[in-house]
Amino acid sequence: MVSRKNARHRLAGAFAGVAVLALGLTACGGSGNTDAGGDADAGGDSGSGDLITVGFAQVGAESGWRAANTKSIQDTLTKENGFDLKFSDAQQKQENQIQAIRSYIAQGVDVIAFSPVVESGWDAVLEEAKAADIPVVLTDRAVDSEDESLYVSFLGSDFVVEGEKAGQWVVDEFGDEEINIVELQGTTGSAPANDRKAGFESAIEGHDNLKIIASQTGNFTRSEGKTVMEGFLQANPDIDLVYAHNDDMGLGAMEAIEAAGKVPGVDIKIVTVDAVKDGMQALADGKFNFIVECSPLLGPQLAEIVKQVVAGETPEKRIITEETTFTQEQAKEALPDRQY
Ligand code: GZL
Question: GO: which molecular function terms (predicted)?
Answer without folding.
Answer: carbohydrate binding
